[in-house]
Amino acid sequence: MRRFFFDLLVGNVVKIDPGGMVFENARATFVVADEMAKHLFVWRDDLRDRDAWIRVRNDGGREIYRAAVWAESAEKAGWDQA
């Protein structure tokens, strides 16, 4: 099992996840990051309409996924297409 970190990016500000979570499969972190982003959209109105993301890093520090804090009804560009 490996440790993955879920950082919050808002514009130029990065809030680093100090502890991370342990997962057996890296793809499972994509689902978790998407759920975190949806939760932040609902509960953190200060993050709406801003360039806010949940970034997933592996234990080596490499970014493997990003989930945008967005509305389900709004269009969402993939992080690798930005």
Automatic annotation (TrEMBL):
Protein name: DUF6894 domain-containing protein
InterPro entries: DUF6894
Boundaries of every DUF6894 domain copy: 3-68
Pfam family, one: DUF6894
